[in-house]
Amino acid sequence: MKEKITTIYMGGDHAGFKLKEKLKPFILKQGYKLEDFGPFKYNKNDDYPDFVVPLAKKLAKNKFARAIIIAGSGQGECIVANKIKGVRAGLYHGGSTKIVFTGRGHDNTNALCFGSRFVTFKEAQRAIKLFLKTPFEKGRHARRMAKVAKVIA
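User: That's the sequence. What structure does it adopt?
Assistant: Structure tokens below.
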């Protein structure tokens, strides 16, 4: 049975604030509920873990949700999100969206991270649409992801 994604969690930091705010109406227009984890205003001194960790913890508990995480580069946000068991965050940095497609289809990513310094509004829209509509292919990928889920280092 195909999972029906109903909710999108968004978060990031000051560097992604403007793009996050611009993308919120776009996501709502796609028919999803949206929960914003912040930042809720621009503050050049904020720290992305303060927003991304609560988002990732909630994402890990909701198989009917996906996350969009936007900051300056997306790198640190992707790292911290992946520290939460059950989160599989992938990084997109513009250009070809094939990495978004394979991230969802092969690796069952449930969070998409990107940096506002590297991705335009149009690129972000394309990547988000693809991320939200691409199903996990299962098969050999499910076998691999089951092995990944058992890794504790």
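The chain has one domain: 7-149.
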